[in-house]
């Protein structure tokens, strides 16, 4: 081979090595960013679920206090306040079930 072709092959090989290194570096950075985003998403979901649990516990505690107060003052078991409270509880249970369903669908979509 002539020196020109020899130099061209060496140059081409060096360029290919550099391009391969750059591609590997870009892929590594991309995967790293995806991992960070996934961790942030999971942390956000965990925080959301913690907030939901705190709020649900607060509502449950308030409901228990209301039930105690109502049972002490209620004249009959079918008072309007009690039926309103039961409707609120039913609504909250439906919302919790819907939230759990959405969370399960979200988790299934992520796996």
In short, what is this structure?
The chain is 92% helix and 0% strand. It has 2 helices and no strands.
Please name the defining characteristics of this protein.
about 110 residues, mainly alpha, 2 helices, about 90% helix, about 0% strand, rod-shaped
Structure description:
The structure is a single chain. With 111 residues, the protein is mainly alpha-helical. It has one domain (3-110). Helices cover 92% and strands 0% of the residues. The protein is built from two helices and no strands. The two termini are 55 Å apart.
Could you tell me how far the N terminus lies from the C terminus, measured between alpha carbons in angstroms?
55 Å
Q: Report the structural category.
A: mainly alpha
Question: What fraction strand?
Answer: under 5%
Uncertain segments are none
Tally of structural domains? 1
Question: Number of helical runs?
Answer: 2
Helix and strand run: HH
The helicity comes to over 70%
Mean pLDDT reading: 84
Sheet with most strands: none
- Gyration radius (Cα, Å) is 31 Å
* Quaternary structure type: single chain
The gross shape turns out to be rod-shaped
Counting DSSP E segments of at least 2 residues, the number of strands comes to 0
Write the layout of secondary structure elements.
Layout: H1 3-73, H2 80-110
Helix pairs in contact: 1-2
